[in-house]
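Lecture 7 notes: from sequence to structure.

We start with a single chain of 157 residues. Read the sequence below before looking at the structure.
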Amino acid sequence: MRRARPGALPRGTAERALTSVEAGADFDEGQDTETREARGEERVVSKLWHITLSVSGAEAPLKEVRRGLEQLAHDHPFLLTSRYANDHAEIRYWEEARDLHDAAAVALRLWGEHRQSARLPPWEIVGLEVIDRETYHQRIAEGYGPPPAAPVGVHPY
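Now the structure, written as tokens:
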């Protein structure tokens, strides 16, 4: 799978790559608000949540930690950045979810569900921060909180 910005030109080609994005669960094509209200349905709106997941455990070879985090980034394409050492790592990414509880539940499963497929170290989750998009941008604008996730990718501490 080629990892690049959607719509970016593949190396060595002159044609633009076409990409498609699946509509979110709250996309309701052809249904207006009055129809939903008449049936007693509420519109479920998802939001973007900034996730910072911290894991820690017994020391592991740095090359294996890096390789595992790179595989996780490949498997979970919304991963922004990962920082790692031989006994801990921090993963930052955006998650789309209905509310904080759903976003946190998905984040708490991320490491365990990918531990075997990405051959991640058997570390435990030791920290989790879930903040909404507005709070994230407010923190950045005020000069505190986590710095913007740049450069994107997997980096040592």
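The helical segments are 33-38, 62-75, 100-114, 133-142. Keep this in mind for problem set 3.
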